Amino acid sequence: MLSLNVFNAFPLAELEVGKHFYWQLGNLKLHGQVFLTSWFVIGLLVLVTFLASRNIQRVPSGLQNLMEYGLEFIRDLAKNQIGEKEYRPWVPFVGTLFLFIFVSNWSGALVPWKLFKLPEGELGAPTADINTTVALALLTSLAYFYAGFSRKGLGYFGNYVQPVPFMLPFKIIEDFTKPLSLSFRLFGNILADELVVGVLVLLVPLFVPLPVMALGLFTSAIQALIFATLAAAYIGEAMEDHHGEGHEEH
């Protein structure tokens, strides 16, 4: 499935292949498939978080231990990319990106979405739809613009004329292409994995698809890590000064 329809009420670009399940809300057309699977992922994360934190123990075990390990992992990721002094406010954002993408990617391989029938289209991993990955890229862009402005104010614009003023148009293009390249990489990898597994299941339905599915789970986790790491790196880069001191200062 491939569908890019940005703000249907104010269409900027549209590309659609195959049939899709939409909800009509006034003049706005909502991508129902993406909402349904995204709500599933969000609900699963909320449920696991609730179960892990409802009875906090001094010596963690089970789900609490898993969640504390995940928090420590995300905290280290943010610290390494953003800096010692600046990373704490950004842990929730980086963690949300990583967990949502990670669970979304794995849901495409582990959840039998094809068993749930829709009037049109079919369900799949949220990150196998380009609407989701572009939305995540736009959130990343807003995050590092906010980080830069909150740290340096209007001085943030000085980045666009460094080291020489004629770099201005190239820096502006770079700010938009960096997160979009993330979104297309994530979308392409997850969609390709679902297609390969789907074809193998049709051709050789027993044991051959299993190694491919295992490899898909591994690459899905790597894709989540890459997206979150680069998002944190962009935020850290936006807060660096013009003299290249960057993370050493932080």
TrEMBL record:
Spans traversing the lipid bilayer: 30-52, 90-110, 130-149, 186-208, 214-235
InterPro entries, alphabetized: ATP_syn_F0_a_bact/chloroplast, ATP_synth_F0_asu, ATP_synth_F0_asu_AS, F0_ATP_A_sf
Gene3D superfamilies: ATP synthase, F0 complex, subunit A (1.20.120.220)
Cellular component annotations (GO), alphabetically ordered: plasma membrane-derived thylakoid membrane; proton-transporting ATP synthase complex
Taxonomic superkingdom: Bacteria
Keywords per UniProt: ATP synthesis, CF(0), Hydrogen ion transport, Ion transport, Membrane, Thylakoid, Transmembrane, Transmembrane helix, Transport
Cellular localisation: Cell membrane; Cellular thylakoid membrane; Membrane
Function per UniProt: Key component of the proton channel; it plays a direct role in the translocation of protons across the membrane.
Family under the similarity heading: Belongs to the ATPase A chain family.
Protein name in the entry: ATP synthase subunit a
Organism this protein belongs to: Thermoleptolyngbya sichuanensis A183
